[in-house]
TrEMBL record, chains A, B:
<feature type="domain" description="Rhodanese">
    <location>
        <begin position="483"/>
        <end position="571"/>
    </location>
</feature>
<dbReference type="InterPro" id="IPR050260">
    <property type="entry name" value="FAD-bd_OxRdtase"/>
</dbReference>
<feature type="compositionally biased region" description="Low complexity">
    <location>
        <begin position="219"/>
        <end position="232"/>
    </location>
</feature>
<comment type="similarity">
    <text>Belongs to the class-III pyridine nucleotide-disulfide oxidoreductase family.</text>
</comment>
<dbReference type="Pfam" id="PF00581">
    <property type="entry name" value="Rhodanese"/>
</dbReference>
<protein>
    <submittedName>
        <fullName>NADPH-dependent 2,4-dienoyl-CoA reductase/sulfur reductase-like enzyme</fullName>
    </submittedName>
</protein>
<keyword id="KW-0274">FAD</keyword>
<keyword id="KW-0676">Redox-active center</keyword>
<dbReference type="InterPro" id="IPR036873">
    <property type="entry name" value="Rhodanese-like_dom_sf"/>
</dbReference>
<dbReference type="InterPro" id="IPR036188">
    <property type="entry name" value="FAD/NAD-bd_sf"/>
</dbReference>
<dbReference type="InterPro" id="IPR016156">
    <property type="entry name" value="FAD/NAD-linked_Rdtase_dimer_sf"/>
</dbReference>
<feature type="region of interest" description="Disordered">
    <location>
        <begin position="217"/>
        <end position="238"/>
    </location>
</feature>
<dbReference type="Pfam" id="PF07992">
    <property type="entry name" value="Pyr_redox_2"/>
</dbReference>
<dbReference type="Pfam" id="PF02852">
    <property type="entry name" value="Pyr_redox_dim"/>
</dbReference>
<dbReference type="InterPro" id="IPR004099">
    <property type="entry name" value="Pyr_nucl-diS_OxRdtase_dimer"/>
</dbReference>
<dbReference type="InterPro" id="IPR001763">
    <property type="entry name" value="Rhodanese-like_dom"/>
</dbReference>
<keyword id="KW-0560">Oxidoreductase</keyword>
Length: 574, 574
């Protein structure tokens, strides 16, 4: 059997290695257009910031290593330019010589990956405008930073790569502006979560411009260009970026521009083979990686995955998923039975002092998928405060009818990755919200609280799903009050806490007095209790419900979450 | 309804709080013998070491706070001395006055907890010998450390409290000796894992004496007693501990002795009520906390739990479990339907630079339960080494017949808590080993490797369970060779790695040469491949199997795990 793999980063090498582990009988060839193989693309921002000392640390394996270990012929600098699925041949060009040749295959694995999207605006092709997808890109940015007097950087796009790079460049002492077309950084998250990412960026000196689009890149000869301030830059670098928001155009001086607005699948070869592109815009494959063209497989970022929860095709290009898809296909094409089980879109990014992570459906996507959702905002420390515990916010979403946990998003300085991974695991097994409290997680005060944030999240969701302790999000409260509904909002905190700020229009009855003073409230009105973060609010809610109040919700995440929401631009209610 | 709770640490307060959340109609009284309520017992060692500044940080809630918040009458300094389950009364003594009275109940919740076991040896009642269970104990140790010229401490018992306290006292600059009767520190773990805990203790200057028993405590008047070296100590402190191992008795100078050999349930009151004690020695309860005496409940450390995997009664007294049991009973006794779902014995402890954690069955317990086990030792970094990732060792155990994951143990400086919690969650849902690879965990190089250690663990176990890549542990290799079996051991590492040490009697054929030189080996002999940690050994194993070798195992955890095993005292094989 002869296996030809196109592409050698995560999925391509995983497929080849797994195939070889299964059999010594196959002849396996990998064609790679580039020079680097199996590199860590996710580590590139950290090379720019100096956390990773050498680019070699991100490209630990070369073709010779891979060939020796796996008996796989890795041809770097070879571009596959065509495929004939009837003859089962590929057309290959050796880039160094320009020579082309035809190779045959029994099975063809397309791991052609993605390319950065570059908006087609004037000046975007100038030297000094970069994308950051592979080591070559990183070497280019690094050289530009090293060789020139760069002080101002504009990053276009506030997704993973944009934010990681922004963080690293701030760490180098540069002035960094991030431009994002959407309402917030990290637009894959719900707005009430990504607003916190905005805040973290700004707190660390990043100028974040949201709802702002790149118009053009200006360069050589304009004032402020790098290398020769005030004079023409003979090398033709950039000098400024022009962006546009609702107020009009604005010019941002820049010595370097990183375009990180997203990626798109490299579909030329799959299309040449006749493979169908799915609804997500990536190649449609079955659960082992087969396209609809016989003997042609697609794996990694170029191919679709599917959502564990909805079962629908989805496309979230990540190295972890690419590895899985490659391994599954490598197994299947050598007779194995591995099957890809889908993804939750689990992801994490460090943004300065915060870990920002998510898994499963956001509130927005859950609503869009037709779920009647229950949402909780849970603010808890990762460890006891007496051992330095720091608060994280977990927003979790469940289906009201079934109690199924649909997704979670979390932001915090410590322990966020653990909670998201536990929740992702639970969701994988179809967890209902009542399951979470029962998980026997590892407790010691050096690592967790006696009841873990995961437990609290489950308890709050469970109470809300069962209707014994309904939650109301700040957005819902805002919307209902703006629509004219009369809602009795009760602040059950101490006078000291209330003095620091409160929900407008709320009455103040501390929890300790609530049993005695409940007569001041109207038990027939919709009532919302709240405290700082939610726990005491829930206690007040229980008191009122047990005293016969019929409609009492607790404000999700308390005043802390409400104030954050209130400070966030959001569409006017009603 | 009138609810009486006895005990106010984790389970008792949880039961009372949950009952109140469910209803305003119950009268709830908690009797507490001590003065502190709802304290963090697990934080006490960190107060001794100074990581926790004030003991008040560990006792944030007092009776007044609890009474106000929950409308619960908390009577500290009140000991319940008797119970009449027919009359439904308890006999209570107010300790300050000595007055006794009778109280009635509709439901009685016994959360009497545990007491430290103190070996009945001479001198163990001297001043300067402490246990560490509650804030009073901690205040006593703290005062002794502060007021006296303590330089030498003997800790008896190398479980959680003993090791945490040893770590903290080393941090204070004290000479610490830990005495443990079992073969290793952390005897709840398998010996090959707890041996690494031994090594960590010794690396940080702790004198660890295993297979060693406390014989007596010597004191006042002997040389070296604290406060007055060489003279009689008028306060009657300790001066030395006499211990015994296989070689005889030995005297260890000591200015302070901490006895932390374990705890036992406080059964006086449950027995007085007529409640049955289960096979674990704790009170037998149903899955909501009912004893077999009507209207008498037992929750927390005094009561049995049951094992999620085996379904059998088990007793692992931990605050996290006590909280769960209390909440479940509090719900059930006010008409709720919460049910305790059992435990995995998940636990974690920080021992200097290592997190030491476990969940589910150890190899020993799995074998004892009759499982044909598959075991993997997986050595992986928590993050990519280029971002400072450091290696952890995960030992995981599965059932060969069903592929069910039975348990995991892990040791490492970073990220151990996350992996154990993910594995605990998977085990809870009945995970089989093939599930783990598919988990969509949060990947970014700042938090994890592209394939997480959890994925690798699952892949290795899956290959072993399916027979495609069997694993052999160092102990098994040792045993089989010692029994005279002829096993071909093949070192597939580079010459450079081999020069650093190898498995005795192994032949050396680097992986790169293995395909060509396989003829030097006998394909009919049992064969074991190995490398440094296991990955390349698995590659060599695949090569040989694919070349027709019939019986090829990979050495679990490679040379690194083997050498650690070889350095560990273990019973002679055969």
């Amino acid at each position: 059997m002869k296996i030809v793999v196109v592409g050698s980063v995560a999925a391509g090498t995983s497929a080849a290695a797994k195939a070889r582990r299964n059999t010594e009988d196959a002849q396996i060839t990998i064609y790679e257009r580039d020079t680097d193989i199996s590199y860590s693309g996710c580590g590139l921002p950290y090379y720019l910031g100096g956390e990773v000392e050498s680019i070699d640390d991100l490209t630990p394996r070369d073709a010779a290593w891979f060939a020796q270990r796996y008996g796989v012929d890795v041809r770097t600098g070879h571009e596959v330019t065509g495929v004939d699925p009837y003859a089962r041949t590929v057309r290959v060009r050796e880039l160094a010589t320009g020579e082309t040749f035809t190779d045959t295959y029994d099975e063809l694995v397309l791991a052609t990956g993605v390319s950065p999207v570059v908006p087609p605006v004037p000046g975007v092709d100038r030297p000094g405008v970069f994308t950051l997808r592979n080591p070559r890109d990183a070497r280019g940015v690094h050289a530009w930073l090293t060789d020139r007097d760069v002080t101002r950087v504009v990053v276009v796009g506030a997704g993973y790569i944009g934010l990681e790079t922004a963080e690293q460049l701030v760490g180098r002492g540069l002035d960094v502006t991030v431009v994002e077309a959407q309402e917030h950084a990290m637009p894959r998250m719900d707005g009430d979560m990504s607003a916190r990412v905005d805040a973290e960026l700004r707190a660390h000196g990043v100028e974040l411009l949201t709802r702002t689009r790149l118009v053009r890149v200006e360069g050589a000869g304009t004032p402020g260009s790098p290398g020769a301030p005030g004079e023409a830059d003979p090398s033709g670098g950039v000098s400024a970026v022009v962006v546009q928001d609702a107020d009009g155009e604005r010019t941002l001086p820049a010595d370097l521009v990183l375009v990180a607005v997203g990626v798109r699948p490299n579909l030329d070869l799959p299309r040449a083979a006749g493979a169908t592109v799915g609804p997500t815009g990536a190649v449609a494959v079955d659960r082992q990686g087969r396209t609809d063209v016989p003997h042609v497989w697609a794996v990694g970022d170029v191919a679709e995955s599917f959502d564990v929860i909805t079962g629908e095709p989805t496309w979230v290009p990540l190295g972890s998923t690419a590895n899985k898809m490659g391994r599954v296909a490598g197994d299947a094409l050598t007779g194995g039975s591995l099957v890809h089980r889908g993804i939750l879109g689990t992801s994490i990014v460090r943004v300065f002092d915060q870990a920002v992570a998510q898994t499963g459906l956001t509130e927005d996507r859950a609503r869009a998928a037709g779920h009647d959702v229950v949402v909780v905002h849970n603010i808890k420390p990762d460890r006891p405060p007496y051992l330095g515990g720091r608060e994280m916010l977990i927003k979790a979403v469940a289906d009201r009818a079934t109690g199924r946990l649909l997704g979670a998003q979390a932001i915090g300085p410590s322990g966020v990755d653990k909670r998201i991974d536990v929740l992702a695991t639970a969701i994988t097994y179809g967890a209902t919200v009542d399951d979470l409290f029962h998980l026997d997680l590892a407790y010691a005060p050096t690592y967790a609280t006696t009841k873990d944030p995961v437990h609290y999240t489950g308890m709050a969701l469970d109470n809300a799903v069962r209707g014994s302790a309904p939650l109301l999000s700040p957005a819902e409260l805002d919307r209902r009050r703006a629509a004219g509904e009369k809602i009795q909002v009760v602040d059950v905190r101490s006078a000291k806490d209330r003095a620091k700020g409160f929900v407008e229009g709320s009455v103040h009855i501390p929890l300790a007095e609530l049993r005695a003073r409940a007569g001041e409230l109207d038990p027939t009105l919709p009532t919302v209790t709240y405290c700082n973060k939610g726990v005491t609010g829930n206690a007040g809610q229980n008191v009122l419900r047990n005293l016969g109040f019929t409609d009492v919700a607790n404000l999700s995440g308390g005043n802390k979450n409400y104030q954050q929401f209130a400070r966030t631009p959001h569409p006017p209610a009603g």
